Amino acid sequence: MNNYLAVDIGASSGRVIWGTLQEGVLRLQEIHRFNNGFIEKEGHFYWDIENLLRQIIQGLQQAKRLGVEECTLGIDTWAVDYVLVGSSGERIGEVYSYRDPRTDRAANLLHQKISFQELYAKTGIQQLSFNTLYQLSVHEQEELRKAEQIMLVPDYLHYRLTGISKSEVTNASTTQMLNLHTQDYDVDLLALLGLQRNQFPALVQPGFRLGPIREELVQAYHLPRCELICAATHDTASAVLGVPARGESWGYLSSGTWSLIGVERKQPLTSHLAMESNYTNEWGAFGTYRFLKNVMGMWLIQQVRKEYDNAYSFAELAELATAAEPFRSLIPCNDDRFLNPPNMTEAIRSFCAQTGQPVPNTPGEIARCIFDSLALSYDAYVREIEKMTGENLEELHIVGGGSNNEFLCQLSADLLGKDIEAGPTESTVLGNLAIQMIADGAIRDIQEARAIIRHSFAIRTYKPRPVDPNMLAEQRTKFHSLHFNRIN
Ligand code: LRH
């Protein structure tokens, strides 16, 4: 029996999970969990990359204590953020978080040199203020000049563990610097930033065998013998691989800090409407594209929960929301004001006040406002995706931590009038492991992996309940009018 380890690091926590495949059943064991989050220093936000490395090492040590002598290992993290590496392999400067305010005006400035239309035609990537392209455009010139290599976070973790630097495509596509036509970094875009192609490692596909963990690390930390295999290193790419879908016409909602809502396609979709409505075409494993929309997801409730000093669990907040008056006040979840406000509860309340809506006061009212707004976003975007692709989505899968939120799953099913299949919560880890298992021949292909996931984990179906059509039309109109800005 082979041992597969997945390191999955999100914006708020990371895990090391041990996966095994026995008689066609995939089993997971969480062997290490740690917190993640950005550190604030003088008005800027950074990741603690050294701590992430330490935590991976600790997870590997724990695996060894549990009897794992040999394994493969795949790493996935959130997208877009990067590390600059100097000529002797040293890290240059801090690793900025994508929620750092330095990019507030970066897109506007860059669009004076190249229009968003041109950028979209090249890359098919949505405009998010924090795409790597925009981040690099405002990065300290001095540091950039010294950077021999620019690596995205998981590529850098690979590099530190193996000494090998590659640029894995699923995550690289989120830089907004890959050209859909040449299938490589776009040298003209790089030139706009004063960068060169050789500052970025060679692109590789998920499943690429990077090699063993460096011997000195194995010896110094008593690690198991581990071969690193590139997972789909963008967590959303892994999450979509882990969707237990059947057939062709399904959509997904990967629900974590972000809600990523979309479809898997064999071709990118860069129509005028897709561009205007700001849909993205992130690259997936096996030559697929994730045509999706980012929705400011559980981040909204995570922040509110912190502001109540974690006095309520997520389940309690959902329960309080259930008891609160429905559709009393709504927010445009994707508005930049909610990206990283000093206080989320206040940002929500002041938006409601400014727009003449009742101001939510209690935790239940705030949570209800967030969940109603999220469900209306899902409803609007699924319908928009169906319109743009010309396909009716027969199944909508909610995967990730948010698939545990019964209230939100049921509300989304009701508004959409569609069955929702919720689970597994661990789809990102499962997608990460699936790539390793396919790479070593234990699983034939992604269809087989999805079938295995489907029968290895509990999946719950939410059937839509009847909804008053007038109420639905009214709320949809209200939601639409709040999202006045098309680039959201
Ligand atoms: C989700 C995610 C998402 C990106 C964002 C930066 O964790 O990777 O797909 O847009 O973080």
UniProtKB/TrEMBL annotation:
Involved in the catabolism of L-rhamnose (6-deoxy-L-mannose). Catalyzes the transfer of the gamma-phosphate group from ATP to the 1-hydroxyl group of L-rhamnulose to yield L-rhamnulose 1-phosphate. Disulfide bonds join C352-C369. Pfam families: FGGY_C, FGGY_N. Pathway: Carbohydrate degradation; L-rhamnose degradation; glycerone phosphate from L-rhamnose: step 2/3. Signal peptide: none annotated. Gene3D superfamilies: 3.30.420.40. The keyword Secreted does not apply. Residues 252-439 form the Carbohydrate kinase FGGY C-terminal domain. The active site is at D235. Residues 4-242 form the Carbohydrate kinase FGGY N-terminal domain. The lineage of its organism: Bacteria, Bacillati, Bacillota, Bacilli, Bacillales. It comes from Paenibacillus dokdonensis. Its EC number is 2.7.1.5. Belongs to the rhamnulokinase family. Belongs to the FGGY kinase family. It comes from the Bacteria. ATP binds at A11, S12, S13, G14, R15, T257, Q302, G401. Transmembrane segments: none annotated. Keywords: ATP-binding, Disulfide bond, Kinase, Magnesium, Nucleotide-binding, Rhamnose metabolism, Transferase. Its cofactor is Mg(2+). This is Rhamnulokinase. GO terms for molecular function: rhamnulokinase activity. It catalyses: L-rhamnulose + ATP = L-rhamnulose 1-phosphate + ADP + H(+). CDD domains: ASKHA_NBD_FGGY_RhaB-like (cd07771). Substrate binds at A79, H234, D235, T236, N294.
